[in-house]
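Morning run. Coffee first, then this:
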Amino acid sequence: MTDFERELVNAFNSFFQDEDINGIAHRKKQHRFSSQLCDVLVDSPHDMFYLAIENKSVKTSSTNKLYFTQHFSESDNGHQVKRISNFLDRSGRTGFLAVEFKRGRGRSRKAFMVPWTVVRESFNGDKPGLSLEKIKQYPEISRDSEDYSIAEICQNLEI
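And here it is:
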């Protein structure tokens, strides 16, 4: 599990505890030779918190776009965007792409929540990826010192 995935799981679980909401965020244990469908799953009896989140981190100094060929995987089962889209359709979960911008030494990281519908539309529209400028148009996951907080996102996102 990457730090970003762990931090996002912790942010959701802290939010549920602080707000006294039934819900849990977790990551399925990944086995060496099997792939997982999404990085973070959020389960709750509340429909708005029945989520699947794919996490990506990019170095802003080396790219200006999150590319479908470079940042997403391809396997015998197809492209990662298609596999996740299929999982979302079959499970009924709402999907998001959480993108963390690594901005270099001495600059804090930033992260944004992009609705999976945007990812799917861009991929199906034969676009090479999502520009970092476009990603910045979506809600930012706030940081409290070193920890991410999703409280503001949960209140403002239409999930």
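The longest strand covers residues 51-59. Good start to the day.
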